[in-house]
C-alpha cells in the first residue's frame, strides 16, 4: 500500500464525490425550497448523458455535447415541472414518491423505445485524454482531475449564487418561510421552475461528464440517485453545505473501502475469501456510515432542527 | 346512544363474516375470483395460469405486509424489497444446503440446511423481525422524507450485498432445485401450492383485519392521522409504529419465502428498489389503507404485466402513465372507485 | 397553602433571535384556576407547549407534583397527569368523536399493545367513553366525524379527551375561542365546576371569563411575566392596563 496509491484513491473518491454533489445539491435544493422528494432526478442525469452522446457524435465536439446535454436536461426539467411536478408541491410525500416513480418508468422505458437497450458511447475529449504528473510520482487521469476542478467551480458558483444574488436571496427566503417569499412579492411559480431547472441541469451535467467514463445507458442514473440520497441524509436535507460534505465523505469512503478493505483483509484471510468478504462489506460501507451518523445526528450533519 | 348500544351487541362480530357493505362484497368477489380462476385454469390444463394465480396471491401477501406500514401506519417504506428478498434468500439458502448436504453459511458447526417450509418460515419470521426492528428503529428516529430515503438506502445495501456475496450466486442468484416441502401436503402439485399461497394470503389478511380492529390498530391509526394527539393522550407513537413496521416486515418476508419456492429461484432482483416501488404501486393501485386494496392492486398489476407485457415490451411505460394518472386524478385507487369512500366510525 | 401541583421555574425559550419565553416562573395549586393572559404573540402557547413537552425549553425546570418532568416525553407527561387542549384543536378529524375519545380512554388503561380484541365491541372502552361524552353533552354527536364539527364542538371533544385521562392538571389554551357567547357561557360554568376536580392553567382572551373564573392571574408580555396577582389586583394594575388592556393611564 503505497502513498501514491492512497492519494490516487482519495482523488478517485473526491471525483465520485463531485458527481454525487452535482446530483445531491439539486435534490436538496428542490427539497429545501419546494418540499418535494424527486425520485426521477436520476432521469435528468440519464437525459443529459444521452443528449451529450448524440450531439457529440453528430458535431464531433464533446464540449458542444456537454453544453447541449446540460441545457437539454434543464429544459426537460422545465417541461416536467410545468406539466407535472408543480401539481405535487402541496401533496404528501407518498404522492410525490409515486408520481416521480411513475416518471422514472416513463423516462426509462421511453428511452428504451427510442434508443434500444444497447449502450451508447461517449469518449473523453482529445485535450483531456491521458494523465498528468502530480508531485510524489503520482500520475493521474486528466479527465478525472478536470471533473474535480469542475466540481469546485460548481460548488463556488452555487455558493455565490445562493449567498450573493437576488435569486439566491429568494431561494433562501423560500427555504425559511414559503409564505414570506409570497409576501415579498416574488413570483413563486417562476422561482420554483428555476430551482427545479437548476437541479435538473446539474444532474444533466453530472450524467454528461460521467457518460464519458462509463457507458451511456438506461438506468445509469439510479445507482447515483440512491447514493445521492445517502449523501443528503448524511448531510442534512435542504443543506447545500451538507450535500458537499456528505458527497465527498461518501465518495471517498466508498472508493477507499472498495480498494483497501479486501487488501487489508488479505492479511488475515486467504486471498479469494478476503476478496469476496471485502467486496461485500465495502458495498455496504456507506450505508453503515449513514446508520452510524443518524444514530448520533438524526437530522444529518448540517440538518436544521 | 342507540349506535353505541348496537356496537356492543354480539351481532357486531357476526357482521364481519357476512358481507354488508359494497366493499365487503367486492372483497369476497376478489378472493372467490382468484380461487375460481386457479381452479378453472387447472381444469383447463393451463399450468401457466395456475402459477399466475399463485404469483398474484404471493405478491398480494407481500403488499398486505407493506400496507400495514404504509396504508395503516403512514410509514412510506421504500425498502420492503429488503424483507421480501430476505425471505427469498432464507428459502433459497436453506434449500441449497439441504440439497448439497453441507452446513449453513459454510460454517462447520451450523446444521445443514432444511427443505421443510415450516422451519424456513420460522427462520424467515425471526430474521425479518429482527431486521425490521433494526431498520425501523433507525428510520423511525427520523421523519417524513428521511424515512423514505433511509428505508430505500438500507434495502439498497442488501441489494449490493446480495450482488457482491459470491457464495450464494451473487448477481446470478440461487436456484432451488427441489421445491421445499410441507408435512402431509404435496407442494410440487401446482394447485396445492396455489392453495398454500392463497391460505397464507388469507391468514395475513385476517391478521391485518384483527390487528387494525384491535386497540393496537386504534393506536396505529391515531399515530398516522395525528401523532401529536396520540402522544397527548399518553401513548408514545414511536413504539406503536415500530411494532407495526416489524409485523409488516415479517409478513412481506414470508411472502418472499413463498415466492422463491414458487419460482424455484431467488436472486438480487427480489431485493431491488424497483420491487420496493412496485409494491408501493400495488398498494396504491388497489386503494391505500384498505384491507383488500393489496389484493385488488396485485391482481391489477400482475394482469397488466402479463397482458400489456404480452403486447408490448415497454409495458412499464404504460404502467408509468397509468400510475401518474391515478396519483394526479384518482387517489382512492381501484377499491376507491369501486367501493366508494371508506368509512369507519 | 399546600404544595403546588405544577411548578415552572425560570423557563427560557428562543426561536432563533426571538425570545418567546423569558425567565418565566409560575405555579398552580390544587383547587384553583390560574389564568395566563397577554397580547397575541406574548408567548402563552409557547409556554404551554414547554409544559406539555411538545417544545423543549432552552433552560429552566418544570415540576409536576414535585417530580421534575423537564426531560420527559409528551406521552410520559400525559401519563403523569397533564391534560391539555390546543389553541387550534388537534384531533383526528377523519375519525368520529367517539373514536377520538376512545383512544384517550384506551391510553389510560395502558393497553395499546393488545392485538386481538376488537375495540368496536369492547365495553371497557365504550362505556367510559359514553359517560364522558354524556358529561360534555356530546352524546348526540358521538358518531359524527370530527371534520364535520364546529370549532366550538371540537373544543369540547378535546376537553373530553383531556378529561378521559383523569388528569392532575389541566392546561387549556383559549378553550372558548370561536365558541359564540352561549357556548362560552356554558364553558365558563363547566370550568367553574371542573376546577373542584382538577386545577386549571387557563389561557383566555375573554377578560370577563378570566376575571369571573380565575383565582390568580399572570400577565405575559413579550415572553416575560409582567404582573401577577388576584383578579382584582390585575384588573386595576396600571402597567397591565397600559400594556395589555390598551388603556391610557390617567
Ligand atoms: N415554532 C415556532 N417557530 C418560530 N417562532 C415561533 C414558533 N412558535 C411560536 N413562535 C413565535 O413565538 C411568539 C409567541 O408565540 P405564541 O406562544 O403562539 O404566542 P401566544 O400564544 O401568546 O399568542 C410569536 O412571535 C410567534 O411568532
Ligand atoms: Mg396562542
Describe this protein's structure.
The complex is a heterotrimer of chains A (305), B (345) and C (250). Chain A has 305 residues and is mainly alpha-helical. Chain A has one domain (3-296): Orthogonal Bundle (ABC transporter involved in vitamin B12 uptake, BtuC), CATH 1.10.3470. Chain A contains eleven helices and two strands. A two-stranded antiparallel sheet of chain A has the order 1-2. The mean pLDDT of chain A is 85. Chain B has one domain: Orthogonal Bundle (ABC transporter involved in vitamin B12 uptake, BtuC), CATH 1.10.3470. In chain B, 72% of the residues lie in helices and 1% in strands. Chain B has helices spanning 2-8, 11-15, 22-43, 47-72, 81-100, 117-140, 144-164, 190-213, 215-225, 227-232, 237-263, 273-286, 293-311, 315-329, 333-339, and strands spanning 174-175, 265-266. The relative contact order of chain B is 0.17. The model of chain B is unreliable at 1-14 (pLDDT under 50). Chain C has 250 residues and is of the alpha/beta class. Chain C has two domains: 1-81 and 170-250, P-loop containing nucleotide triphosphate hydrolases (Rossmann fold), CATH 3.40.50.300; 90-166, no CATH class. Chain C contains nine helices and ten strands. Chain C has a six-stranded mixed beta sheet with strand order 6-7-8-3-9-10, with helices on both faces. A four-stranded antiparallel beta sheet of chain C has the order 2-1-4-5, with helices on one face. In chain C, a hairpin with a 2-residue loop joins strand 9 (216-221) and strand 10 (224-230). Chains in contact: A-B, B-C. At the A-B interface, helix 4, helix 9 and helix 11 of A face helix 7, helix 12 and helix 14 of B. The complex binds adenosine-5'-diphosphate and magnesium ion. Residues 44-45, 87 of chain C line the site of magnesium ion. Residues 44-45, 87 of chain C line the site of magnesium ion (MG).
